[in-house]
Amino acid sequence: MKYATKGAMGKLRLHFTMRTKVEIRLKEIFLKHYCPRAAIDKITEELLQLRQTNEYVDEINGIFFDKARFCPALLTTPELWMTRYHLILKTEIREFIHSSKCANSEEMIDWERGRETELKRREQEERRGLSISYAFEEN
């Protein structure tokens, strides 16, 4: 029974390996024929210049991953993905999260969402505090 399971798992791994290679090859062909080099270079430059301004973490996450799909040579490992993504974030978020301490990009994004929520909460508390102090000054 062990041999049958091992054989089945081997076939399954081979299937996914072949599938992945086919997908990579199809993507290369698609990019070569339908995306001019100038367009890919422009997207790569936009990715390198990308910085979070007023976007939420989820919005900048979507922008980053949309552009990153066209830059496989720039982001060859998961660590490079995480490092590049970490660099685009606002300083208030980035300074509390270290990409090297996160096991994967999902964990890092969860930390960033939590930090963003905390910053929003603090901002709302400050606004409430200011409005309360203005109310006392008027009386």
From TrEMBL:
Origin: domain of life: Eukaryota
Protein name: Uncharacterized protein
Organism annotation: Smallanthus sonchifolius
